[in-house]
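Tutorial, part two.
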Amino acid sequence: MRYSRTSKALGLAAVLAMSITACGGTSGGNNTSAAANTSKAITANGTEPQNPLLPANTNEVGGGRVMDLIFSGLVSYDVHGKTVNELAQSITTTDSQHYTIKIKSGQTFSDGTPITAKNFVDAWNYGAAAKNAQLNSYFFAPIKGYDKVSADKSTLDTMEGLKVVDDTTFTVDLTAPESDFPLALGYTAFYPMPESAYKDIKAYGQNPVGDGPYKLAPGGWKHDTSITLIPNDKYQGPNKPKNGGVTFTLYSSPDAAYTDVQSDNLDVLDQVPPSGLQNYKTDFKGRFVNQAYAGNATMTIPSYLPEFKGEAGQMRRQAISMSIDRQQIIDKIFYGNKKVATDFTSPVLDGYDANLPGSDVLKYNPTKAKELWAAADKISPWPAGKVFTITSNIDGAGNKEYITAMANQIATTLGIKAQLNPIATFKESRNLINSKKLTGASRAGWQADYPSLQDFLGPLYGTGAGSNDGDYSSPAFDAKLKEGLAAKSVDEGNKLFNQAQEILLKDLPVIPLWYAAVQGVWSNNVTNVEFGWNGVPLYYNITAK
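Running the prediction step on this input gives:
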């Protein structure tokens, strides 16, 4: 998943055939038109990418929505989360540890250069090497030799588990069997890059040459303003554009985006702000969607904060969790359009369990919260006058409102000072969080990149994972994840992943808040608007009237 949107890890093989039935949702009406204009561009909301557009360094929504349109991987995921071969001709193995990958011949990047096996091997090695400091490097951890290249920041930059056989074939040797490895290969980190990228990687990140259904228009990335994509005429995959391009307007306010859709100045908005939740169904009669997707909202409490270490810290985490009346916030701010979280994943995923042992810690219980906080104070007193801060960008839909409400609940219940630490933009907040220098908690939202419980666990809580905001590390949790990845069946793997969640429920590296649902709307100027299993519009399928 990506930060919300971000990153990802590895789930189970039988999930490859899984269709997420809970994604059907509620549509606002008939969404077809006989008068579609496939040559006309559409507009959509977006946010400024945190980093240059490199596959292994993009793990948030602003960059992710662009990367998934200008790049294609070995596989992709359809509207239900089912895996579809893109550049892969075949991905085969006899033991789930040694894979042979054949790519389709005749495929090219948007500049016309051929896509070869070497393009994948080089890109994966670049992403894994410590010297390149890529946020998604964790996703190459299963590959033999990753431990060496990820620890050596000097010259070592190739993993021994990757071998080019010929122009269209390469092999991947893992350190242990992982039957679900092919499922992850549609994620951003595994996209190929052309050889020209490495001549000036910094410049490439500003204007990448990809292989997806779209490409950046000349001068298309106008920082903090807009990102314009146009169809890639070299693309031969299943997601060919049905429009003349996509321009993402980079908004600092979701309310401004909502107003623009109402006035037909913006075509697609992927999340209605709280100010519009009460009336969006009547404001956009026949032009809205309300559906569950694989995503959630949490609050991270970093492990490096001294007040939250040891036994006292564990009790404080539990107390804060029990101080939050999640349902009240959902009802008052989101008008009932969320569902209280009972775990760290999502109900739309195979293997979800709403009754995990230890999940009582996620229930509103102010009396117990006060007892736990008092017990923690007896061990290590909360510093006098210290404010419990929750850092968040305020350019996202509802962030300011719900965090302010949550801080007030925590303050009222525990008798401490608590408040929002507002950051203007998503990019700025991610940079601050990644610096690992927070003095309090931070907001997080996760949007899955492929349908697996593991995608909500490994990337976020695995030791050293790129999206592990709080620097959480638990050998027991890591070991349980490995067991799940090596499982021989979906059911067995999911049971082990849920056992790993039981460890998280004790440690609470983050406080789960609620599960995500997308409330999207669109203008009178477009048709064929559909949202996928992960809550993202299928931009390539949208047509202008």
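The first strand starts at residue 2 and ends at 3. In part three we will examine how such features are distributed along the chain.
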